[in-house]
Amino acid sequence: MKIGVLALQGAFELHKPHIEALGAQYVPVVTSKNLNDLDGIILPGGESGTMLKLINIVGIHQQLANFLQTKPVWGICAGAILLAKSVKNPTQESFSILDFEITRNAYGRQLDSFQEMINDYQVSYIRAPQISKVGKNIKILKEKEGCATWLETPNVMITTFHPETNLSTPSPWHRRFAEYCIDLVS
Ligand code: GLN
Fold it and tell me: What's the CA-to-centroid distance between 171 and ligand 1, angstroms?
């Protein structure tokens, strides 16, 4: 199994040990060629505006959009922002892959970042966004302060928190995403 991680900016490298602990291959995605033969892709945390600019600069916007419409994808924090239907604070373009609205930097500044235990596993919220509205037929698996932080559909996983910062590999979310990639999620 080959799992790609968009590797233009942000927290991509931290996914490598989690993916390899599953016996899968970690593929850093920088060019459209890297998208060939992937079973799924992770859009990592980072800075979503910068990531969007870099996606356009390296010229993979169209190929990435096609990939996201047909293959399993997991968006984390900035990656979740790139997949939302609508982005606030400020308004920003997105790939509009799933029907939810997201508000950037909703918990405050970088210094207001925090950690939380979910199912006995520590995850990090790093200058995280808040999911402010969720469309129909989308499962909400976790909420915080009345806002969803973990969403799932048969093709898409969204978390506003980062599990990859935890050094205990593989994280339950990487394991779950691998199930997406081998088509076990329905
Ligand atoms: N604050 C970032 C943004 O709005 C997201 C932070 C993250 O990915 N940890 O793009």
Answer: 20
